[in-house]
Amino acid sequence: MAAVKSSGALVGNRLAITAILVITIVFLAPIYWIASTAFKPRALATTVPPTVFFQPEITPFIKLFVKRVQLTKPVDPAVYEAAPWWEKRIFDNGERVLRTGPNVQLSAYPSRFMNSLIIAITSTVLAVGMGTFTAYGFSRFKIKGEQDLLFFILSTRMLPPVVVAIPMFLMYRAVGMTDTHIGLIVLYTAFNLSFSVWLMKGFMDEIPKEYEEAALVDGYTRMQAFFKIVLPEAATGIAATAVFCFITAWNEYAFALIMTNRRAQTAPPFIPSQLGSGVIDWTVIAAGTFLFLLPVAIFTFALRGHLLRGVTFGAIRK
Amino acid sequence: MATAVMTRLDPQSRAAARGWSDLSIRNLFILPTIAFLIVFNIFPLIYSLGYSFTDYRASTNAPANFIGLANYRDLLNDDFIWNNFIVTAKYVLVSVSGQVIVGFGIALLLNRAIPFKGLITTLLLLPMMMSMAVVGLFWKLLYDPSWGIINYVFRLGDFAWLSNRDAALYAVAITDIWMWSPFVMLLSLAGLSAVPKHLYEAAAIDRAGTWYTFTRITLPLVAPILLIAIIFRTMEAFKTFDLAYIMSSQDTTELISIKLYKMAFQEWQTGKSSALAYIVLIMVLAITNIYVKYLNRVKER
């Protein structure tokens, strides 16, 4: 039915649209600010009034990846001319790149970023793998005390990280697992496992049982039916769950802060720790933050149809 | 045989006699997860329950002495700890009510035909997907008293948000509201879109006012899902560690998780912090219980 809109309703609608646009801009402003700071020349990062328009440059990203020291005397013009383009940018900033022999010394950032990737990906694969099987079990079979078990599984997710970290730290220290990749992988797997079970159960419940039943009648074993019928049907759900688990592990801070300090340290505790060391170069911190947030931003768009489900542990769908 | 598999399978049934029995498949699928969670979540908690009755300090080699309930008694009589709980309660109240007002408000505005609605909704959801630690870090840049953009835009001069004892908690809460209002918005939108259109049409025919329609139709129907959002955010805000820890080191922003972290990993009072962890744990489980009850209730509808 086509409702006849009064002019008052139309004006109200326009006002609402304007308000939404303003709110969206306000909400995105902090993200724009960090992204733009990552491309600013250092001198423009902390100006009064703040610099909004500028010639973007990628020097902060070059600085992010290499170890540098302040120049004590001007660079020899011959050395400057022989340097690659990116090293010239460092010289232009009054710094030089540290080398061991001919090799450029990398900053800690790339290794922390790699740690984040390794730990987040491995724990995601484990949590989603186990969670998918378990969710199928809960979805299809009769289980004694099913509700209690599901509550138990969920409650492990709700534990405050610091509460779990105290005994885990003592146990890890006893077996030499502090500051190891495997230590964080285990913690993140446990943390994401309950989420993955709950979310995957929602997806499994949506796959009609008739599909497997038809397969069983056709002579498939239940295992074959699970792998050949159910898993392909659940692919979208598995992908969405995996992205959620990845983001959670990628963003996690408290466990990483407590359990790691160097070798296995991930990006979230590392990026803020740069604040403490000497003169703060916000452009470099912003560049590190920008690269760190980029995958999450991309994934958020990829996930947009599943966000509601994800944040409610699969309880509320569209 | 086919009829036996039609309903939810009883694992004892012989419906799927080929290959693995359903019973063993069920166990194979479920038990590893349960075992994993017991080993890495429940066992550590039992371990720390033991420590909570001792004076153990993980920084020394001194053995742990059993001191009974002394840790719990000390903690409950400690004014500083009560202060941490009061700070936490204040933070939860400010931040969750802010999120509900902003989030529900945006949802009401978005609940109409708007160009690029999907894109706008997704953009608004970006903050909550980000790392709290990193968000806290870059909000420090925004709050900077001398060149931060917040003071510049709102003409606040050199007001030092994060080093001001009274303002710091609100500054952290504002960041949390920025991050998590979209969460409330997302759930509210789901609730709003489920309100049957004919109710509004009926109200319009009866010439019901906007306020009347809102309080008598919209609010009651969205309330259950809004309540879920509120309980969930309350639980998360209660546990907040990252954001406040990164943004401020004031005692006025020392949430209970931060106190717990300092007690355990800076003062190394392992026994006492285990006891505090248990007090916090019980509170969190109580909220979780309420949360799951409501979740199930809404799910059934």
Topology:
The complex is a heterodimer of chains A (318) and B (301).
Chain A: H1 7-37, H2 42-45, H3 59-65, E1 68-70, H4 77-82, H5 85-92, E2 95-97, E3 99-100, E4 103-104, H6 109-140, H7 146-158, H8 161-175, H9 181-206, H10 209-217, H11 222-233, H12 235-251, H13 254-259, H14 267-273, H15 282-302, H16 307-311
Antiparallel strand pairs in A: 1-2, 3-4
Chain B: H1 2-6, H2 22-51, H3 70-76, H4 79-110, H5 117-129, H6 132-143, H7 149-153, H8 168-193, H9 197-205, H10 210-239, H11 242-247, H12 256-265, H13 270-300
Helix pairs in contact in B: 4-8, 4-10, 5-8, 6-8, 8-10, 10-13, 12-13
Task: Describe the overall structure.
The complex is a heterodimer of chains A (318) and B (301). Chain A contains 16 helices and four strands. Chain A has a two-stranded antiparallel ribbon. The longest helix of chain A has 32 residues, at 109-140. In chain A, helix 3 packs across helix 15. Chain A is globular. Chain A has two domains: 67-104, no CATH class; 109-311, MetI-like (MetI-like fold, Orthogonal Bundle). With 318 residues, chain A is mainly alpha-helical. In chain A, a hairpin with a 2-residue loop joins strand 3 and strand 4 (103-104). With 301 residues, chain B is mainly alpha-helical. Chain B has one domain: MetI-like fold (Orthogonal Bundle), CATH 1.10.3720. The longest helix of chain B has 32 residues, at 79-110. Mean pLDDT of chain B is 89; it is low at 1-7 and 12-16. Chains A and B meet through helix 1, helix 6, helix 7, helix 8 and helix 9 of A and helix 1, helix 2, helix 4, helix 5 and helix 6 of B.
